[in-house]
Amino acid sequence: MTNKEKYKQAFSVLHPSEDICLEVERMAIMSRKASFKTAAAFVTVCLLMVCAGGMAYATDVGGIQRTIQFWLNGEMTNATFEFDSDGNYVISYPLEDGTMGERGGGGIAYERDGSERPLTEDEVLESLNDPEVVYEDDGKVWVYYYDQKIEITDRFEDGVCYVEVSNGDKTLYMTIKYKDGWCSSPHKYQSPASFN
Q1: Residue-level pLDDT at 60
Q2: Which residues span the membrane (predicted)?
Q3: Closest among 173, 175, 138 to 157, alpha carbons compared
Q4: pLDDT digits (tens, 9 = 90+) for 40-51
Q5: Which is the most buried residue in 30, 44, 120, 150, by most CB within 10 A?
Q6: DSSP track, 40-68
Q7: What is the DSSP letter of 119?
Q8: Which residues pair with 162 in a beta bridge?
């Protein structure tokens, strides 16, 4: 017989007192309660992280939305500007008849190394101040730049019109082809053959 077997045989006749058994059971219950509290705290933290992540995702789905003022057809207009990380934007603004008008767009910029990147929010907002050429149904042609409204319908010669616009700080020289595009430069009028 080995020592292990001898110890088993000697102590097998001994039984713990009732108080010791109750203490062991009480300690086991407290241990389970502590484990349950730890698990509950862990589950709560996980749920909070999932909910917060879901809210952040829902917020980002529509992009960043804020109220801006921009020049529209020579009038300062309040609008809702929504921008996403791909450089796309949507502007919603009230029309005279009470309905909402909408404009949108986006674009890319080319880096010096030739790589493309989405436009930043600041670049998009700056482009909202670019001049605009509008062809109306009645045949009239207008140039809008900040608070300026210039009718250029009768200025076209051989399908081309040259217009100088200024906002006080910046002067632009516009070359406009009738219903065939336009360009502007801060230095000089561009040749109609240089674009489109």
Answers
A1: 45
A2: 36-58
A3: 175
A4: 777 777 777 776
A5: 150
A6: HHHHHHHHHHHHHHHHHHHHHHS-EEEEE
A7: P
A8: 175
Element (H, E) at 125: helix 121-127
Nearest residue to 119 via CA among 128, 168, 29 = 128
Paired with 141 in beta bridges are 135
Q: What is the pLDDT of residues 142-165, one digit of tens each?
A: 999 988 899 999 999 999 999 999
CA distance 122 to 130: 13
Distance CA 124, CA 132 (A): 15
Which one, of 170, 159, 165, lies nearest residue 193 by Cα?
A: 159
Give the pLDDT confidence score for residue 57 in this predicted structure. 45
**DSSP-derived secondary structure for 131-194:** -EEEE-TTS-EEEEETTEEEE-GGG-BTTEEEEEEE-SS-EEEEEEETTS-EEEESSSPPPGGG
The two tokens of residue 154 are 């009768």
Is the pLDDT assigned to residue 193 strictly greater than 90? Answer: no
How far apart are alpha carbons 5 and 138 in whole angstroms?
111
